[in-house]
Design a protein that fits this description.
With 545 residues, the protein is mainly alpha-helical. The protein has a single domain, classed as MFS general substrate transporter like domains (Growth Hormone, Chain: A, Up-down Bundle), CATH 1.20.1250. 67% of the residues lie in helices and 1% in strands. It has 21 helices and 2 strands. Strands 1-2 form a two-stranded antiparallel sheet. α4 runs parallel beside α7. The longest helix is centred in the middle third of the chain and has 31 residues. About 5% of the residues have low confidence.
């Protein structure tokens, strides 16, 4: 380089290279600023805290496309928020059923001890003895109060399903939970007011119960992954077991304590208010709106649900239920027929197990509560096992798994009911109690039977299928006490033989119908695309042949 001009000069051929005396400058690499670890942790913690505050404040979360998924494990539940939603929902479902079951137990203790020489006593002597004849309901009045719940549920089930589809489970189910809690708190006042007031309170409790199964279907379809349908159904449907596990022993202890039978209703009402307050604050209708749900979990939940979601956080506009196509589908009728048989057995256990133990086996009230809670505890764990195994077993085809689990549940219960009919409750009390408990426990396998089939076949319309199942449950709630009132009004052992045989035959017959027509494949009407519908129809015919 020329020192004067600064131009580069090519050296002559053969000449030596010029020697530079100036030292070469040392080039330091540029260091980009990096956030400190503490600053990064603070940012993650701030993100998690803001999500948590948003979740319990009831706000929906605005999700951005470039949202960072770091810090998900800072939350105690990590990427498993869907399971917290499932657990809270299960407790709320259990609370609504527990509010109904309170009367199934407390009516035994409400009038007090009936004196032997009642006809020779005055009203003042009755009151001094602690007996209240106005609360000693006859068999007809008891059946009326049982059926009032069923009528309330029947009246409300389809309107509540329409509201559920329009407003979502958070608002509809939350409001119904508060209504159930208030009705339960007012039951002691209604009982002291008169029989009509008691009917109204029970009717309102039934209206709240009408949404339980549709809510179960809605939460499963929106919050469960396709591979975890079985465990979601098992846990959510276990509210039928959790409710008596809590209510029966607690009611037995409170009824025999100084607090009296009224405390049973006050306790259940307060618990319902607490649980549904938590539900309304924490629950969201869709996982995309929940602040604690990270993108990784959202992708898992939405995978394979093109019929429900058109993209992350984008619900399809069309939610029209294909009523005609659903009612023409044999797989739907298989589910509904199985549901009828299932709930005939379930309602007999829920409504009349305490009656059978106390009036037929003559066990005292405290022991009746404990004995009534044993079978739901065992049944709860059977449901968990059935739900997990039905998802994980791969060497058996899905239709065969549905048949096996449903037969274990309903066929097993039917056989055990008939076995119980052959036992003599006068001389074989222990055997009768064991068979009765076993007949209820084995029904836990239904989570891998028709319940799972309803989700597999109906997909995004499972809430409507569950509404039909809920309607049948209400019919069974109405028919079961009516049948008992006609056949066994005085709870004589000979009359209970007829009741048990009737329910056993119903269970076996409906299970056979389900096994013949059941399906595990999504129905053609679960998609709105004509090309996909035709492809699914061809594939289903090929699969069946």
């Amino acid at each position: 380089m020329d020192p004067e001009t600064g131009d580069f000069v090519r050296p002559a051929r053969g000449s030596a290279l010029p020697i530079h005396t100036d030292p070469e400058p040392i080039i330091q690499p540029r260091q980009l600023p990096r956030p400190e670890k503490e600053e990064k942790k603070q940012k993650k913690a701030t993100s998690t805290n803001s999500r948590f505050i948003a979740s319990i404040s009831g706000r929906s979360w605005k999700r951005h496309e470039d949202e960072d998924d770091d810090g998900a494990d800072n939350c105690i539940f990590g990427r498993q928020i869907r399971f917290t939603v499932m657990i809270i929902s299960t407790l709320c479902l259990s609370s609504i059923l527990s509010n109904i079951l309170t009367f199934n137990f407390t009516y035994i203790a409400m009038p007090g001890n009936k004196p032997d020489n009642l006809s020779n006593m005055t009203k003042a002597e009755w009151e001094a003895y602690g007996y209240r004849p106005e609360l000693d309901y006859s068999s007809a009045k008891r059946s009326t109060l049982f059926m009032a719940v069923a009528v309330g549920a029947l009246v409300a089930v389809f309107p509540m399903t329409i509201m559920l589809n329009k407003f979502g489970s958070r608002l509809v189910f939350g409001v119904l939970g508060y209504i159930s809690a208030i009705a339960t708190l007012f039951v002691p006042l209604a009982a002291n007011t008169g029989f009509i007031a008691m009917i109204i309170a029970r009717f309102v409790q039934g209206m709240a119960f009408s949404a339980c199964l549709p809510v179960m279907g809605s939460i499963t379809s929106h919050w469960s992954t396709l591979k975890q349908n079985g465990i979601f159904i098992a846990i959510l449907s276990s509210f039928l077991q959790i409710a008596p596990i809590f209510t029966m022993p607690i009611s037995g202890e409170l009824c025999t304590s100084s607090l009296g039978w009224e405390s049973v209703y006050y306790l259940h009402g307060v618990v319902s208010i607490i649980l549904f307050t938590l539900f309304i604050l924490y629950h969201r209708n869709k996982p995309d709106n929940h602040p604690m749900v990270r993108r990784t979990e959202l992708v898992k939940v939405m995978f394979g649900k093109g019929s429900i979601y058109s993209g992350p956080g984008k619900q399809k506009v069309s939610k029209k239920v294909p009523y005609a196509a659903m009612y023409k589908d044999p797989a739907i009728w298989a589910i509904l027929v199985a549901a009828f048989g299932n709930f005939m057995g379930t309602q007999l256990s829920l409504q009349f197990m305490p009656t059978y133990i106390n009036k037929v086996l003559y066990l005292p009230i405290a022991q009746t509560g404990i004995a009534s809670a044993i079978s739901p505890v065992i049944m709860f764990f059977i449901k968990l096992i059935a739900g997990q195994s039905s998802d994980r077993i791969k060497f058996i085809s899905d239709p065969m798994k549905l048949r096996i689990y449903n037969t274990l549940a309903m066929g097993g219960m039917g056989v055990l009911f008939i076995t119980l009919a052959f036992c003599d409750p006068r001389t074989q009390k222990s055997l009768c109690l064991v068979v009765l408990i076993a007949s209820t426990c084995i029904l836990g396998f239904n989570s891998g039977g028709f319940f799972k089939s309803s989700q597999m076949v109906s997909r995004q319309h499972s809430h409507f299928t569950m509404a039909n199942i809920s309607f049948l449950n209400c019919v069974c709630m109405l028919l079961t006490p009516l049948l008992n009132e006609i056949v066994a009004p005085e709870n004589e052992p000979e009359d209970w033989v007829i009741v048990l045989w009737t329910h056993g035959i119903i269970l076996l017959t409906t299970n056979a119908f389900f096994c013949f027509f059941c399906s595990s494949r999504p129905a053609i009407w679960t998609t709105g695309n004509l090309f996909i519908r035709n492809a699914m129809a061809f594939h289903n015919r090929k699969f069946e042949n």
